[in-house]
Amino acid sequence: MNVQLYSRLLVVFLTNTVWTRNIRPMYDQPDTYDWSFYSFECPQECFCPPSFPNALYCDSKELKEIPAIPARIWYLYLQNNLIETVTGKSFVNATQLKWINLNNNKITSNGIEKGVFGNLKNLLYLFLENNELEEVPAPLPLSLEQLRLARNKIATIPAGVFNNMENLTALDLHQNKLLDSTLSSDTFQGLNSLMLLNIAQNSLTKMPPTPPANVIQLFLDNNSIEAIPENYFDATLKLIFLRLNNNKLTDKGLPSKIFNISSLLDLQLSYNELTKIPSINVHLEHLYLDNNRIDSINGTQICPVPIPGDHVYERNLPRLRYLRLDGNEIKPPIPFDLMLCFRLLHAVVI
Ligand SMILES: *[C@@H]1O[C@H](CO)[C@@H](O)[C@H](O)[C@H]1NC(C)=O
Ligand SMILES: *[C@@H]1O[C@H](CO)[C@@H](O)[C@H](O)[C@H]1NC(C)=O
Ligand SMILES: *[C@@H]1O[C@H](CO)[C@@H](O)[C@H](O)[C@H]1NC(C)=O
Ligand SMILES: *[C@@H]1O[C@H](CO)[C@@H](O)[C@H](O)[C@H]1NC(C)=O
Ligand SMILES: *[C@@H]1O[C@H](CO)[C@@H](O)[C@H](O)[C@H]1NC(C)=O
C-alpha cells in the first residue's frame, strides 16, 4: 500500500479509537447471563435502564455521596455531581465494575478511602477529571486501560503507582501542578501499551523522563520547557503526534537532529522562542511553527533531502503538506526553493 494512504488511514483510525470505545456498552452485554442470580435493585437517586442492566446512570443529580452500587453493574456514571468522598462501602458488592466516570465532582485526595480503587480488579476506565485531587490516587488496579486525571491540582505521584499497568493505553494528566521533581525516571516504567501521554498545562521546565516505547501521542503544551536532551526520542519509535506549543524552546535547546523521527507526522512548536526552522524528517506532514521569532526561511537548508529534481517519483518527495509560519518575522514572498523541496505542500500560512 502507498505510504501516504497508509499513514492517512492510521491517523483516522487513531483519532477515532477513543470515541469508538466509548459507545461500546450499547452492544457489549455479557454472553451468558444468569438473570436470576442478580436482583434488579436500583439506587433511588439513579436511573437503571431496563434494556441495559449493566449500566447505572447517577450523573448530574447534585449527589454529595456515591450510593451503594449493585453487584451487576459494569458501567457507572457519576459525573457532574457534588461528590467529595469515595468510600469502600459504596463498592463492596460492585466487583465487576469496568468503567467509572467521576468527572466534574469535588473529590479531594483525602476524600478517597485508601485502596478503594485498587480493590476493583476488573476496572478498565477510571475518569476523575476536574476534581480537587492533589495526588494520584494509589493503589490503582493494574487492569486499567484509561486513566484520566486532567484538571485537578495534582503535584504528587506516589512512587510506582503506574508501574506495570501493562494494558494502560491512555494517561491524561493535563492541567495539573506537576513539577520536574514530581516525575522520576521510573514513573512511567512498565507502561508497555501506553499510546497517549498528555502532560500539557503543568509546570515542567524540562522534558519528562523518556516516555514508554509505544507512545503515539505525546502532548506537552503549555509548560516552560526550554530544551530537549540529545537522543531523547531514540526509544520512542512509534511517535506520530508531538505537541510542544507554548513552551520556552530556543534554537540552543534543540539538538540539530532531534526531530529527525521517522514515525512523526505532526509536529507542533507554536509559541516558542525559535529563530530558525528546525530540521525535520522526510515523512513529516504537518509542521506548526507559528508565533516564534523566525525571520527567514531557506528552503534548501530545511529540505530533508537534496532539492528534488523534476523527475523524482512522488513517493520519494518530502511529505510535508501543511506549514504554519504566521506570527514570525518572515516577509513574503515564500522562497521558491521551499516550494521546490516540498512539492506536496497544500498550505503555507505566513
Ligand atoms: C451487598 O449485597 C448483599 C447481598 O445481596 C446485600 O445484603 C447488601 O446490602 C449489599 N451491600 C451493599 C452496600 O449494597
Ligand atoms: C491485560 O489484558 C490481557 C488481555 O485482555 C489480560 O489477559 C490481562 O490479564 C490484562 N492484564 C492485567 C494486569 O489486567
Ligand atoms: C495553552 O495556553 C493558551 C493560553 O493560555 C490557551 O489558549 C491554550 O488553550 C492552552 N493549550 C493547551 C493545550 O493547554
Ligand atoms: C534522518 O534520519 C535518517 C534515518 O532515519 C537518516 O537517513 C537521515 O540522514 C537523517 N537526516 C538528517 C538530516 O540527519
Ligand atoms: C540557502 O542555503 C543554501 C545552502 O546553504 C545557500 O547556498 C543559498 O545561498 C541560501 N539561499 C539564500 C537565499 O540565502
UniProtKB/TrEMBL annotation:
<keyword id="KW-0433">Leucine-rich repeat</keyword>
<keyword id="KW-0732">Signal</keyword>
<dbReference type="InterPro" id="IPR003591">
    <property type="entry name" value="Leu-rich_rpt_typical-subtyp"/>
</dbReference>
<dbReference type="GO" id="GO:0061303">
    <property type="term" value="P:cornea development in camera-type eye"/>
</dbReference>
<dbReference type="InterPro" id="IPR050333">
    <property type="entry name" value="SLRP"/>
</dbReference>
<keyword id="KW-0272">Extracellular matrix</keyword>
<dbReference type="InterPro" id="IPR001611">
    <property type="entry name" value="Leu-rich_rpt"/>
</dbReference>
<dbReference type="InterPro" id="IPR000372">
    <property type="entry name" value="LRRNT"/>
</dbReference>
<comment type="similarity">
    <text>Belongs to the small leucine-rich proteoglycan (SLRP) family. SLRP class II subfamily.</text>
</comment>
<keyword id="KW-0654">Proteoglycan</keyword>
<dbReference type="GO" id="GO:0005615">
    <property type="term" value="C:extracellular space"/>
</dbReference>
<dbReference type="Pfam" id="PF13855">
    <property type="entry name" value="LRR_8"/>
</dbReference>
<dbReference type="Pfam" id="PF00560">
    <property type="entry name" value="LRR_1"/>
</dbReference>
<protein>
    <recommendedName>
        <fullName>Keratocan</fullName>
    </recommendedName>
</protein>
<feature type="signal peptide">
    <location>
        <begin position="1"/>
        <end position="20"/>
    </location>
</feature>
<feature type="domain" description="LRRNT">
    <location>
        <begin position="41"/>
        <end position="75"/>
    </location>
</feature>
<keyword id="KW-0677">Repeat</keyword>
<keyword id="KW-0325">Glycoprotein</keyword>
<dbReference type="InterPro" id="IPR032675">
    <property type="entry name" value="LRR_dom_sf"/>
</dbReference>
<keyword id="KW-0964">Secreted</keyword>
<keyword id="KW-1015">Disulfide bond</keyword>
